[in-house]
Amino acid sequence: MVNKFFCLRNFPDLDSKYIEEGLNGKYNQNFKPHVFRSWCTYDESDFAKELKFKFVNVRSTWLMNPPWTLYDWHTDVGRSCSINIPIKMPDRAAAYVKDQLVPEIKTKYFKLTEVEYILNKPTILNVSQEHCVVNPTNETRIILSISFEGDVKYEDILNYLRLRSD
Question: What is the extent of the structural domain holding 145?
Fold first, then answer.
């Protein structure tokens, strides 16, 4: 699903100081019903500075999904892409992207694909495509989300990150 997401398995793990920050952050409800955000210092990291130099409008935030929640199907507003790094990912918590089975016929039948996340590793996600997050567990789900705002294209960021990782 390279056109919707791509897991950057060979990138280094997220530094423990950021993991600690995300796990101990004070989360405030941002969007209804189930998205909570917390202040983040990751913008000060070398990687975030590199991304800002290359793509300009880049910012980081912590996102938390409480237990037993669904962040329903949506496309993000104001950004085309994000790099998400999960630091707390319950076994059954997941994000999904969807494809219409027969694109030329509007139906309610879709193929769902689970976004590949690996704990402490970045996954680039095309957030201009419909996606959702489910957390059917008794634990919270926490990710670091790096946003690319403006006219930046998912494919450009993906290509840059793939070249960087070689």
Answer: 5-165
